[in-house]
């Protein structure tokens, strides 16, 4: 068979060309060192190559007497078989090298890392270094705690948990039977005190009349005394001239003394009547004070009666309701709490090292943990005048013992837009993350101005 023509061999169903076969045959002979070794050496080498390739490819290599024949026909067959096997090995070449691919991947990763790092550096230089952020921030509201003012059993509860209420809405009613009786008793006391005042006023009027009567008696007694005195003087002159007896003079003298005594008695009656008026006036004032006290008692009773109806002091949402129908409340007992949504704001505790650029009016971006995809825009409203540790019940005492410096935090109040408050998404106590743009703001701090004045 000519080696320059294409041929087919049924080994795996593949077709080979003579040129490739000759090249493979030459490479096999050069590796085995059988060049110039004669036909037998070439035949043995080809047989070895065939066996090796067959073992690698998992195919059985047929052997026969023709493979070991010394004639030329056998040599040609063996050579052809070896050539086909070698060509099969060449067709099943080893996998391509991965070194170049790994290098390209590394280069791409390095370029991506450099690009990302450059972007982050640019963002920090243009934006990040002006942002002061903290996750120590919470939604806060001025919560109003509702307490009982009076004692009594709960008669009815008008609101449920988490119910929205307006200022003046009825929350709860306490049994008011005892308080209505107290109101009626106070009214009766007022009527009694007023009656006493009226009675004393009448007595004062009578006392004033007695004074007038006593004064009239004084005038009459004085007139009688003057008449008796004139009669005594006349009788004395007559007695001195021996025109009247001594008995007549003595009678005139006795009449004068009697008139003098009557005058003094009348004057004493006037003084007593006036004193009685003063006493009655004092009693009247006491009665009038009793009326005032009774009115005060009535006001208190009516106030206590009004306190049996618990109303919402502010607009908000009822929470933490503790009172139930039939519960016995005492003064100071907790009933519920109202969270006023209108006063909702953010309290962010910034490190003292972050306060340099934070000023009232600065723009703030708020990220609520409950709604991470809905950022909120706010503004810095004010900065606390002291750190949180200063207002604690037990402030730190660093004058004794070992000192460990700890970065302090200062509360910053952040105003939330009205539309966010009315939406009802924010709840007191929620955790938020705030980012303050220190390039904005610049308003004067109200706390600082107040301190200066």
Description of the molecule:
The chain is an alpha+beta fold. The chain folds into four domains: 7-91, no CATH class; 144-174 and 309-336, OB fold (Dihydrolipoamide Acetyltransferase, E2P); 177-306, Helix Hairpins, CATH 1.10.287.620; 338-394 and 403-452, Efflux pump adaptor protein, beta barrel domain (Elongation Factor Tu (Ef-tu), domain 3). Helices cover 49% and strands 19% of the residues. The chain contains eight helices and 16 strands. The chain has helices at 18-32, 38-57, 72-91, 99-126, 177-240, 246-307, 418-423, 446-452; strands spanning 7-8, 15-16, 131-140, 144-147, 152-157, 164-165, 170-174, 309-311, 316-319, 328-329, 334-339, 345-351, 363-368, 371-383, 409-415, 431-437. The strands form four sheets. The chain has a six-stranded antiparallel barrel with strand order 3-12-15-14-13-16. It has a four-stranded antiparallel beta sheet with strand order 4-11-9-6, with no helix packed on it. The chain has a four-stranded antiparallel beta sheet with strand order 8-7-5-10. Strand 13 and strand 14 form a beta hairpin. Helix 1 (18-32) packs across helix 3. The longest helix has 64 residues, at 177-240. The two termini are 119 Å apart. The model is unreliable at 1-19, 29-91 and 446-453 (pLDDT under 50).
């Amino acid at each position: 068979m000519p080696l320059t023509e294409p041929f087919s061999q049924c080994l795996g169903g593949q077709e080979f060309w003579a040129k490739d076969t000759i090249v493979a045959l030459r490479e096999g002979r050069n590796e085995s060192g059988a060049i110039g070794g004669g036909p037998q050496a070439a035949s043995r080498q080809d047989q070895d190559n065939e066996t090796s390739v067959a073992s690698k490819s998992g195919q059985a290599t047929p052997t026969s007497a023709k493979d070991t024949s010394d004639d030329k026909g056998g040599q040609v067959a063996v050579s052809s078989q070896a050539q086909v096997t070698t060509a099969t090995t060449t067709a099943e070449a080893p996998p391509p090298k991965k070194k170049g691919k790994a290098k390209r991947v590394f280069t791409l990763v390095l370029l991506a890392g450099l690009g990302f790092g450059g972007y982050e550096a640019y963002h920090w230089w243009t934006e990040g270094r002006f942002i002061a952020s903290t996750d120590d921030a919470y939604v806060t509201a001025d919560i109003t705690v509702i307490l009982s003012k009076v004692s009594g059993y709960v008669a009815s509860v008008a609101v449920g948990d988490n119910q929205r209420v307006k200022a003046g809405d009825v929350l709860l009613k306490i049994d008011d039977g005892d308080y209505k009786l107290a109101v009626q008793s106070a009214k009766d006391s007022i009527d009694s005190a007023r009656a006493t005042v009226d009675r004393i006023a009448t007595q004062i009027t009578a006392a004033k009349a007695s004074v007038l009567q006593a004064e009239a008696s004084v005038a009459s007694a004085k007139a009688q005394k003057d008449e008796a005195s004139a009669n005594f003087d006349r009788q004395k002159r007559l007695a001195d001239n021996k025109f009247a007896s001594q008995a007549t003079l003595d009678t005139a003298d006795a009449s004068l003394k009697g008139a003098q005594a009557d005058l003094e008695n009348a004057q004493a009656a006037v003084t007593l009547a006036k004193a009685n008026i003063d006493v009655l006036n004092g009693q009247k004032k006491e009665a009038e004070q009793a009326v005032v006290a009774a009115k005060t008692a009535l006001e208190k009773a009516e106030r206590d009666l009004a306190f049996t109806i618990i109303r919402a002091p502010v607009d908000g949402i009822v929470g933490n309701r503790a009172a139930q129908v039939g519960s016995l409340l005492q003064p100071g007992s907790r009933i519920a709490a109202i969270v006023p949504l209108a006063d909702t704001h953010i309290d962010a505790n910034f490190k003292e090292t972050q306060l340099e650029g934070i000023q009232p009016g600065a723009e703030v971006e708020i990220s609520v943990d409950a709604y991470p995809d809905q950022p909120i825009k706010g503004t810095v409203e004010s900065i606390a005048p002291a750190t949180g540790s200063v207002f604690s019940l037990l402030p730190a005492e660093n004058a004794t013992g070992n000192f460990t410096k700890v970065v302090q935090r200062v509360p910053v109040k952040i105003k939330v837009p009205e539309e966010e408050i009315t939406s009802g998404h924010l709840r007191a106590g929620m955790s938020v993350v705030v980012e303050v743009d220190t390039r904005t703001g610049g308003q004067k701090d109200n706390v600082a101005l107040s301190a200066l004045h």
